[in-house]
Protein: Phosphoribosylaminoimidazole-succinocarboxamide synthase
Amino acid sequence: MQKRDLLYAGKAKSVYLSDDPQRLVLHFRDDTSAFDGKKKEALERKGMVNNKFNAFIMEKLQAAGIPTHFEQLLSDTECVVKKMEMIPVECVVRNLAAGGLVRRLGVEEGIALNPPTFELFLKNDEKGDPMINESLAETFGWATPEQLATMKSLTFRVNDVLKQLFLDGGMLLVDYKLEFGLFEGEIVLGDEFSPDGCRLWDAETREKLDKDRFRQGLGGVIEAYEEVGRRLGMTFG
Ligand code: C5P
Structure:
């Protein structure tokens, strides 16, 4: 697999074309951003840690029958993925209240959400990723009702698999964001799953082990990501 021209540089990852027209190369950079890019910093080792973390999780999901774009690791900071047509809608599931939900509704952080909630956001940096709903997504053509139903069902299946995986490592999966795309007409999980895009708390102490450490200036960001990986049986070298 040969990496070719840069296709797109996001806030934390760069996407390259490859010598296979059906495949792309994702490069996980050390760049870390929060608050719509207003807070930015390069955190040493983050690209490597997130690339390996993402590969581990994507393989677990694939093994559970959830289609993902992940194909293989290419280097410490790169992996090969299917070239998809991305759907510009972010799917968020929450098991415990935190972040945006606490801010919006004024509920107490950490309360259990039964059943877990499902929210949609438009992936649009300029507009600050506004919350949307199925009606808006259909009317504006961001996704069809059938696609949204599949995305919702896959997002909850991911919850079933990962809630237990993290619990086995003594962690609570508080919430997470997923993105999907179309590959050969099928809805496939894209983007990444790493502590950058989810919230994970120690099950006993509720210590934060995810990007909230960066957002809230708590320090030890990458050390926490590596700790999460270690608890799942990963080694980062
Ligand atoms: O900010 P909020 O509480 O709505 O985020 C919910 C979950 O989705 C968090 O785990 C957050 O890290 C993730 N998220 C993300 N990218 C966004 C928005 C949210 O990864 N653009």
Summary: Residues 90, 92, 98-101, 129, 175-177, 197-199, 211 surround cytidine-5'-monophosphate (CB under 6 Å). The first strand starts at residue 3 and ends at 9. The longest helix spans residues 145-168. The two ends are 24 Å apart (CA to CA).
